């Protein structure tokens, strides 16, 4: 039972910063929600990027739409709940709840307009490349005959037209439900009928033929209304889609988290309607009727000619390799191959880092598989935040338990939208004999850590894996993350204390290497920044490089401002939300922020502190982490930050991974003082693409003997201010 616990070389010159410092405290921060919308616009910009293949551009459009759905289901839902309950809290930038919602609604509408504009352009380009989405236009006789047969045999049986009148109340429509509403006439009889698109039927249906022709399910239904409603005259019609509040609040008195979440998941499907998407030409009388029937008086109403663009991902699967990125096969670390595939022998020799997705996530799976099969392994402990539906890691843990090993799995039930899948895995693990632990009620266990205890000639040895990403086979192919393997006994003891903290609430004392949140990570971060401030004031070299997904925490941002004012040069790569305002004289003129959006999703977290030397330097302090610089990560999650002391891994992270992020100029956006983002434009013959570089250049620490054969890793250089 869980309980409550105590500038790149080819960048254009930066625009001139304002001449005055901000006059009010609110100007110190950007709004969190608007910063997220700005990130999603950068994702959408990739859908309009002519350098990407067509189907990949369509994928970016789908991702942008899916991201926006989740934003409304969670972030906007929370603000709406506060507004309805009369809870008034100002954001860090000084906006009231109502002001935030108003700004979000306006920006979201602009984003949807841009999505539709991109979709119209892509639809035309796809049609020119023989990938067509059919509308209401007539088709050839063969296609019409196939559609008629398909509709009658495959679609019609699963549709349920529902009359809505005093005897038939407005039906419940689930989250993300897409529906059609019709007003019909037969003689003097008027009726309204609603058809919900069945969730089990593909939204986009491929019409057989050499050319790739797709038709949306709602379009097919509209083309067959005469069959659905014989002898009725169609008067009005419209389409709409809803998003519901999908966040799950944790109640402190919950005694059984599994039972609580099983119930909460069902409640989430019936959450308050947060957003109602309607077609622009939907008659007002039907809009009012739908709004009243859904009880959506407090919902945000938006017009969209193409609701549910996230479903366009189905078309991306079309077998047209020339319209997609060239295939890429991740490498398997040569270090492990040199040891005959023995992960433990390779780790025992020395620590090494694996850079995903350029190097295969299979090495992580193999680490756990070998532990499960090795008779000398006595125990395995593993945190699991998101593992996916087809998880080789889970199967390996089950095999290990069935082989009689002691296996502990920390399953995070609060991993949003993965709760149901995690409950299923927890049940399967427990049936196999795995000791399943759910952690804390108030805190999520977000740290990605695995430890294996193995019996060897000189006693028990602990092998550890630290990840910046999840143990998830799908995201590991498209997220950039790092995996660090070590048999350092100091780290092994720290990890054992970390697991004891999660499983038994035994607060860790005297950690030698590991720093964890919420116990001490914020304090350590501020201490490291204070050291850079002191160095700068003493006239010594100073500097901070960091790669993050989000930067929100006001205390950390204020310390970064303090460091900037002391003269510390700070270069941040923040993929998503950034509430820090860079380039403001007297406050942040020494801070630059960029965001990278490209073929892969930047996800790794790493932080580099000069430590009295000009970056990059072998004596700099380098850390990897599972945490972003957000209040939730520092105050309400179990996270880790780990110093990297192995010289080869240190050089790989600092001189390769971090520098490559800083000098990328093909997929990068610079954050300007006013909160807008400006895409970097490479100078002639000076383009550098981070993702293409690492797809072409093998890792440093995993290359083993190949480094001694003259196959050196190219030297990257970052010069600030260019």
Q: What keyword list fits this structure?
A:
single chain; 722 residues; ten-stranded mixed beta sheet; eight-stranded mixed beta sheet; 21% strand; disordered N terminus
Overall mean pLDDT stands at 89
Total strands: 27
Uncertain regions spanning at least 5 consecutive residues: 1-25, 250-257
Number of helices: 20
Helix content: 25-40%
Cα(first) to Cα(last) distance is 55 Å
Q: Roughly how many Å is the radius of gyration?
A: 27 Å
> How much β-strand is present in the residues?
15-25%
- What would you call the shape? globular
Major sheet, described briefly?
10 strands, mixed
Helix/strand-derived category reads: alpha/beta
Q: Your description of this structure?
A:
The protein is α/β, with parallel strands linked by helices and 722 residues long. The protein contains 20 helices and 27 strands. The strands form four sheets. Strands 14, 18, 19, 20, 21, 23, 24, 25, 26 and 27 form a ten-stranded mixed beta sheet that branches. Strand 8 (273-278), helix 8 (284-294) and strand 9 (300-303) form a beta-alpha-beta unit. Helix 13 packs parallel to helix 14 (419-432) and helix 16 (521-537) runs parallel beside helix 17. The protein is globular and about 90 Å long.
Summarize the entry for a quick read.
With 722 residues, the chain is of the alpha/beta class.
Q: Secondary structure elements and their pairing?
A:
Elements lengths: L31 H16 L6 H32 L11 H32 L2 E4 L6 H15 L6 E2 L14 E9 L2 E8 L7 E4 L4 E5 H7 L1 H4 L4 E12 L12 H12 L4 E6 L5 H11 L5 E4 L9 H4 L17 H5 L4 H7 L2 E5 L5 H12 L3 E8 L7 H11 L3 E6 L7 H14 L2 E3 L6 E2 L2 E9 L2 E9 L11 E8 L2 H16 L10 E3 L3 H17 L6 E5 L5 H13 L3 E5 L16 E6 L4 E2 L2 E5 L11 E5 L5 H5 L1 E7 L3 H17 L4 E4 L5 E3 L10 H7 L26
Parallel strand pairs: 1-6, 8-9, 11-12, 12-13, 14-25, 17-22, 19-20, 20-21
Antiparallel strand pairs: 2-4, 3-4, 3-7, 5-6, 7-8, 10-17, 11-15, 15-16, 16-17, 18-25, 19-23, 21-26, 23-24, 24-25, 26-27
Helix pairs in contact: 1-2, 1-3, 2-3, 12-13, 13-14, 16-17
């Amino acid at each position: 039972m869980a309980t409550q616990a105590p500038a790149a070389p080819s960048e254009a010159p930066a625009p001139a910063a304002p001449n005055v410092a901000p006059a009010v405290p609110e100007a110190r921060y950007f709004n969190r929600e608007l910063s997220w919308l700005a990130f999603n616009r950068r994702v959408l910009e990739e859908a309009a990027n002519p350098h990407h293949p067509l189907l990949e551009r369509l994928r970016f459009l789908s991702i942008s739409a899916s991201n926006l759905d989740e934003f409304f289901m969670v972030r906007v839902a929370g603000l709406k709940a506060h507004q309805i309950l009369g809870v008034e809290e100002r954001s860090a930038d000084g906006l009231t709840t109502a002001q935030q919602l108003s700004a979000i609604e306006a920006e979201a509408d602009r984003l949807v307009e841009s999505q539709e504009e991109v979709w119209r352009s892509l639809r035309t380009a796809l049609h020119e490349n023989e990938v067509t989405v059919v509308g209401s236009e007539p088709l050839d006789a063969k296609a019409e005959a196939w559609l008629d047969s398909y509709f009658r045999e495959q679609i019609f049986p699963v549709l349920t037209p529902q009359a809505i009148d005093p005897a038939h109340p407005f039906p419940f429509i689930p989250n993300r439900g897409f529906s059609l509403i019709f007003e019909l006439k037969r003689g003097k009889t008027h009726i309204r009928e609603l058809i919900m698109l069945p969730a089990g039927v593909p939204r986009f249906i491929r019409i057989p033929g050499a050319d790739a022709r797709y038709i949306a399910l709602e379009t097919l239904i509209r083309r067959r209304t005469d069959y659905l409603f014989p002898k009725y005259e169609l008067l009005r019609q419209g389409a709409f889609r809803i998003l519901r509040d999908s966040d799950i609040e944790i109640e402190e008195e919950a005694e059984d988290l599994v039972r609580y979440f099983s119930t909460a998941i069902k409640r989430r499907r019936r959450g308050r309607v947060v957003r109602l998407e309607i077609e622009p030409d939907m008659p007002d009388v039907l809009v009012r009727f739908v709004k009243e029937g859904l009880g959506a008086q407090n919902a945000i109403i938006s017009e969209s000619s193409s609701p549910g663009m996230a479903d366009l991902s189905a078309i991306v699967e079309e077998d047209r390799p020339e319209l997609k990125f060239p295939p890429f096969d991740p490498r398997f670390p040569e270090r492990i191959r040199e040891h005959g595939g023995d992960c433990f022998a390779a780790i025992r020799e020395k620590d090494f880092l694996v850079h995903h997705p350029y190097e295969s996530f299979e090495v992580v799976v193999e680490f756990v598989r070998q532990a499960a099969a090795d008779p000398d392994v006595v125990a395995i402990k593993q945190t699991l935040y998101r593992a996916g539906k087809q998880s080789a890691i889970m199967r390996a843990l089950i095999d290990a338990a069935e082989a009689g090993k002691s296996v502990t799995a920390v399953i995070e039930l609060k991993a949003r939208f993965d709760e149901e899948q995690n409950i299923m895995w927890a049940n399967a693990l427990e049936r196999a004999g795995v000791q399943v632990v759910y952690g804390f009620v108030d805190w999520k266990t977000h740290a990605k850590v695995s430890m294996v205890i193995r019996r060897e000639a000189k006693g028990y040895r602990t092998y550890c894996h630290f990840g910046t990403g999840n143990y998830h086979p799908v995201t590991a192919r498209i997220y950039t993350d790092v995996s660090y393997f070590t048999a350092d006994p100091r780290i092994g003891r720290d990890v054992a204390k970390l697991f004891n903290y999660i499983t038994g609430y035994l607060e860790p004392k005297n950690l030698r290497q590991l720093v964890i949140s919420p116990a001490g990570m914020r304090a350590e971060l501020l201490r490291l920044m204070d050291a850079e401030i002191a160095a700068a004031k003493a006239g010594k070299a100073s500097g901070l490089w960091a790669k993050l997904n989000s930067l929100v925490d006001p205390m950390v941002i204020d310390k970064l401002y303090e460091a900037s004012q002391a003269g510390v040069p700070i270069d941040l790569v923040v993929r998503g939300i950034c509430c820090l305002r860079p380039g403001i004289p007297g406050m942040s003129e020494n801070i630059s922020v960029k965001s990278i959006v490209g073929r892969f999703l930047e996800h790794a977290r790493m932080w580099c502190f000069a430590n009295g030397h000009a970056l990059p330097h072998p004596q700099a302090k380098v850390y990897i982490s599972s945490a972003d610089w957000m209040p939730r990560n520092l105050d309400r999650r179990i996270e880790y930050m780990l110093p990297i002391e192995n010289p080869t891994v240190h050089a790989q992270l600092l001189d390769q991974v971090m520098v490559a992020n800083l000098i990328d100029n093909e997929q990068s956006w610079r954050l300007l003082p006013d909160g807008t983002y400006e895409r970097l434009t490479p100078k002639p013959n000076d383009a550098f693409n981070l993702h293409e570089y690492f797809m072409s250049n093998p890792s440093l620490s995993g290359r083993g003997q190949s480094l001694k054969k003259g196959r050196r890793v190219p030297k990257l250089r970052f010069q600030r201010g260019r």
